[in-house]
Amino acid sequence: MEIDAAVLEDVVKRLRRAQGQIGGVIRMIEEGRDCADVLTQLAAASRAVSRAGFKIVATGLRECAQAPTSNAEGVPSEDELEKLFLSLA
Q: Which CATH number fits domain 5-88: 3.50.50.60, 3.40.50.300, 1.20.58.1000, 3.20.20.80?
């Protein structure tokens, strides 16, 4: 299964945002910033990573639903997709 280039671009954008947020969290901790501010930024980074993962899983689900047969080579089974989805939950 190949993922559309536009989807990958969006995923990379989300991950770069998370990367910047994590760098900010590290700086905030090193500077002794307020715990609530650190946790707010950490939650934002976590959401960005989760959304990137969900975007990949959603694309996989859409492509598998459009596949001509459920046994096509390279197409994950429903159980495999469920396992991937739950790994993000």
A: 1.20.58.1000
